[in-house]
Design brief:
Elements lengths: L2 H21 L7 H29 L1
Length: about 60
């Protein structure tokens, strides 16, 4: 996987995080949908952290 690939994945994950955090303001219908959204936010934040780590490791 190239640096360009990781950067692309990072950018897509940031877009997804924006979408998920915007979804917080919507009526999610019930607490299960809210919890699922929050878990997806945490998972996406973890992916972003991992991609940033990989990019920084390549820089060194």
């Amino acid at each position: 996987m190239t640096e360009s690939d990781v950067t692309s994945l990072l950018n897509e994950s940031k877009k997804e995080l924006d979408r998920l955090t915007t979804k917080r303001t919507e009526d999610l219908g019930n607490s299960i949908n809210y919890i699922e959204n929050e878990l997806e936010i945490q998972r996406t934040q973890g992916k972003i952290t991992a991609y940033e780590y990989v990019l920084n490791a390549d820089a060194n």
